[in-house]
Write a structure and sequence with these properties.
6-stranded parallel sheet, single chain, alpha/beta
């Protein structure tokens, strides 16, 4: 039977496109090798504002639509065995350069989204970034979500808010200098002895493996400051879909592409 809009349906009313989509999902899932699943996935949730503009909706509606897709992503990651997901929810540049009329509702959406993730007790929330730049109430909401899930034995979810890669490296070096000064070491000694590992031990993600795969939605093909230090050996996957439209099949395609890469780690 053909509907007025031209969409074919099976006799029981199921959309044929849905059936084909499900079959394609299953085929993609079967093609994945467990040994090639990334341990740590970083995601740049990009395109919320353009998604809203495309639909003639308010910017906040785009941010909310993007927030509504986060739990889906985490579930997909959990299903395939990803151990760590880093979500870039807000950049330090966004916090400074966007007007207050956009930032205020966005912060409210972030607060509720992170609180809802914590309330599921499925994932352990960890804050990365510079929360001191946020309004005190927002920072407290995020810290509370992290505290509430500290004992959860589930996938680690890094909430990067607000986050900037250059600031992270500067903060790491600053922390390293303060630590050396507290131990009575001279700056000359520190300069002579400092190594890459010393700086890495002071990053926001210290103690975690670097991301194996970084996904950016919306068609943009640049890092924009996301995990600058940690992503030196990461594989990148750029998806044309705006973040609110990012589907399970898009995630599976990213994993498939990652599994097909020959990771040489600079060799």
């Amino acid at each position: 039977m053909v509907q007025a809009a031209g969409i074919r349906r099976t006799g029981d009313g199921v959309n044929l496109n849905d059936l084909l989509y499900a079959a394609y999902e299953r085929r993609l899932t079967r093609s994945l090798q467990k040994s090639s699943i990334p341990r740590h996935v970083g995601v740049m949730l990009d395109g919320n504002r353009r998604w809203a503009k495309q639909r003639g909706a308010a910017t906040a509606a785009g941010h909310q639509a993007g927030a509504d897709n986060i739990a889906n992503l985490l579930g997909w990651c959990e299903d395939v065995g990803v151990e760590i997901v880093t979500l870039w929810l807000l950049s330090t540049d966004n916090l400074v350069n966007r007007n207050a009329a956009e930032i205020r509702p966005l912060l409210g959406i972030i607060e509720k989204t992170v609180a809802d993730l914590a309330a599921t007790r499925r994932w352990r929330v960890n804050l990365v970034g510079a929360p001191e730049l946020l309004p005190a109430s927002t920072a407290e909401h995020l810290r509370q979500a992290a505290a509430d899930t500290k004992d959860v034995d589930g996938m680690l979810v890094n909430v990067a808010c607000p986050y900037g890669g250059r600031r992270e490296i500067a903060d790491a070096v600053r922390s390293l200098i303060h630590e050396a000064a507290a131990k009575g070491r001279s700056m000359e000694n520190l300069a002579d002895e400092i190594t890459v590992d010393h700086i890495a031990a002071h990053l926001y993600t210290k103690g975690q493996p670097d991301p194996d795969l970084v996904i950016r939605t919306s068609g943009e093909q640049r890092l924009g400051g996301f995990l600058l230090w940690q992503s030196a050996q990461s594989e990148f996957y750029f998806c044309e879909a705006y973040w609110p439209d990012f589907r399970h099949v898009d995630f599976l395609r990213a994993l498939r592409a990652y599994g097909e890469r020959n990771r040489r780690f600079g060799a």
